[in-house]
Amino acid sequence: MVIDMEIFRKSVRLSLSMVILVILCMLFITAIIVYFQIDAPDSKWGTLFGSLAAGMIVAIIQYVIAWQDYRQTEKLKKLKLVEVLFNRDSRDKYEEYIRNSNRKLDVMGVTAVRFFNDFADTSNGALENAQVLLRALDRGVYVRVLLVSYELLPESKKLDYTKVRTKYKELIQRYPNIEIRYFNHIAAHSIFRIDDTCIVGPVFPTLESKNTPALHVMKSSPIALHYMDYFEKEWKDAKKE
Length: 241
Fold this sequence. Notes:
alpha+beta, 8-stranded mixed beta sheet, 8 strands, 241 residues, 9 helices
């Protein structure tokens, strides 16, 4: 008979908080049993196990009170959450992520004007920290960028977008490992994936992207997996530069 090992593993999987509670209860029961089997409860061993049993009672009560906190911590661990970002205005962090990238960089947003202006300055005399995306491309990092089609942009964004679009085309001609595509609907999500980690969050039409919240999670996080599936679908359907 063939046994489905995945079902078996799920059936016996226990949370860490449950394991700790079971251990505390077992220690308490063991201390009580040993205490009542000692002929002289007032002896040194009787006092030791009596104190141990009382200590276990206190520990179990405290643990039960803190149970919800432990459960929430475990949930966060399962989500593989690195950090909650109250905004995306930290240029230094993004510079560090790009500088340390080795394989893949995926970006999805509205125009990516700030992204290219900050990290892909092709002008003579540009500062080194303003060219980290160019250095990543030199290292062979594969870069994919998904943006809103020009026709769907609000008028307030079209001018800056038109200026930076020349840079898009320049980079595509210069580097074979960067692709830029356009989706034909209003942006709803922002995605910034660097190798094994990613920053994801909503897009609010009335707010600049730098002022919106986001989650920094590992690529294997259930949250990230949904976002990356969404990215791949949009990438497949998007039109090329």
